[in-house]
Amino acid sequence: MLTQRMQIQALADRLAGLPVADGLKASNFTDPWLACWLAIDAVEPPLANHALVNALAAFPEREHIVQTILSARPGYTPSFPSLAEIAADLRPIEWLWPGWIPRGMLTIFGASQGSGKSFVALDLAYRIIHGLPFPDGSHSSLEGLG
To answer: Mean pLDDT, to the nearest integer, of 76-81?
Structure first.
C-alpha cells in the first residue's frame, strides 16, 4: 500500500507523462486516488486531465483533490542528506555517564516486564542527585548544569 503522498506523486507523474515505478498497480491505491488512477489508465495521455475531472464528479471535494494532484511537482523525489554529509556539522556527544547515557538525548531502558528497569532508573537518579559514582566507577559529568 502506498502512502497518500506517494499516490498523489504517482498521479502527478502520470499526468505529466513521466514514467512511474515498475509494478505500480491500481491495487496500490485507495479512494479517491484509485478513481483517478483508473481514469488515467482508461484514456490516451492527451485526455488524462479531462478524464481525471470526470472520474471525480461523484466526490464532493473534487476541486481539492484535483488541485492536490496538480500542485505536486512531477518527478519530485525527496532527497535527504546522509549522516556522512552532515557529520561535520554535528556537535560531539556529551555524556552524563560516559558510553552509556548521553546528555540532552533520549535514553531508553528496554527489558522484560519485572526485570528491574524502574529500579535501575531510580538507582541512577539517586547516584546523580547525590554525586555518587555510576556502577562502573565513573562519575557524572554534571559540570555546568547549575
So the answer is: 80
- Cα 75 to Cα 39: distance, rounded to the nearest angstrom: 20
Average pLDDT value for the chain? 89
DSSP state of 96: E
Q: How many domains does the chain have?
A: 2
Q: Which domain holds residue 116?
A: 83-130
How would you write 41-86 as a 3-class SS string?
Answer: HCCCHHHHHHHHHHHCCCCCCHHHHHHHHHHCCCCCCCCCCCHHHH
C-alpha cell at 133: 559514582
pTM: 0.54
Contact 10, 18 (CB under 8 A): no
pLDDT at 33 over 80: yes
Cβ pair 10, 43 in contact under 8 A:
no
- From the list 111, 113, 112, 90, the residue with the least C-alpha distance to 102 is 90
- In this structure, the answer to whether residues 13 and 63 fall within a common structural domain is yes
The helix or strand, by DSSP H or E, that contains position 120, with its residue range, turns out to be helix 117-130
